[in-house]
Fold this protein.
Amino acid sequence: MAESPEFLTAQDVGSFAYLSMKDRTPQILTKAIDTLHRHKSEFFEKHGEEGVEAEKKAISLLSKLRNELQTDKAIVPLVDKCDDTDIWNQHLEYQRSLLNDSTGELRWFFSPWLFAECYMYRRIHEAMVQSPPIHDFDVFKESKDSNFFESQESIDALCLHLQQLRPVRELSEKQLKEEFLRLLQISLWGNKCDLSLSGGESSSQKTNVINSLEDLKPFILINDTEFLWALLSKCKKTAAPPVVRVDIVLDNSGFELLTDLVLADFLLSSELATEIHFHGKTIPWFVSDVTVRDFSWIVDHVKDSNQKATSACGAAWDNYVKSGRWIYHDHIFWTLPHPYCVMPQVAPDLYAELQKACLVLFKGDLNYRKLMSDRKWEFTFPFHQALSGFHPAPLCSIRTLKCELQVGLQPGQAEQLTASDPGWLTTGRYGIFQYDGPR
Ligand code: F6P
Ligand code: MG
């Protein structure tokens, strides 16, 4: 097997990783601090003086963190006592053991970018955990919720579309396939709406994405969706006992989650799948990632909509959850800095869960980085190999490109893209459906 290339780091001035750590990440911290400030009276109403003291403490910890990052200070062990604290600190030691400089100190800009960035979000969590009684406050909740409200028109259009397909079971095979491919594309473009790329600023979906799909097709650089259709059609016919499980490793809340739920509903109502397992984060993560609170919040809000089609979707989703056909899981592994190839060792229980699936969909850019171990692979390097042994079940990455990492392209494709659109790797304008499994 070929030797793995280096990890992406933020040390190359001008690289996307560098710009991300230098500008976007401090901006995210500033926004989190501002959010805490604005909720001061709420903390006071709920917890009295203790709430105000906690707000001050969280702000001072976050300001300290921002300073450490901006001045490239040493990365220090976590001091909280959460379920994952020991694993994190062991990983810090491991990263330190890889250093070949004399200081022996891990630094923000010289460590692998994936590790440093995940550590930053874990430190935000630590700052909150250390600030009871407001330790449960999600500093990103407001942005996630406004992304949902600002995308309202697109959400209603999408729910209406889904309602008009019912009863889905009565669609012809041809119509089923067309819809499947359409809803996959909607879920792909939903991934443009993450809030960490915009530094936490608004990134909602204001136009009806269904009408734009044809225009967006040329921006899909790898399209393996035919394999997904073939796989699920086959599973449906051959599954014994007749359980077809599809797992969706979620990314962002707001509009993107809505597109995933619409797809998940279609998979059940078309009988392409019999159960959907969602995987979300246990703590606030990369600004917009889904936590269990976001998941329930969105199902409730869709159900309570005053638009008939939207609320009908919400009622169906609530029913899927209650009847156990939609199952939400979270696991600390998703918010560790580890690449997915080590999942069998670090989280064997989670790996065993994924092995039960007929297909696992990985949404978003961060999941792609972790699937690829965030290494500088050649653009034409095979996807299967870059997964470095991570093959729990047939899987597909559905992601818009937001970092300088892409494998599996045709020879010359990357060069052509660079010539026609120099920002192709990082603007989220392009997307992929990249599949690994039986063909
Ligand atoms: O900043 C790092 C990064 O992984 C980017 O590559 C991307 O902008 C963002 O975080 C997360 O994107 P997504 O929500 O699609 O995982
Ligand atoms: Mg995200």
Summary: The beta strands are 220-223, 245-249, 275-280, 326-330, 359-363, 395-400, 431-436.
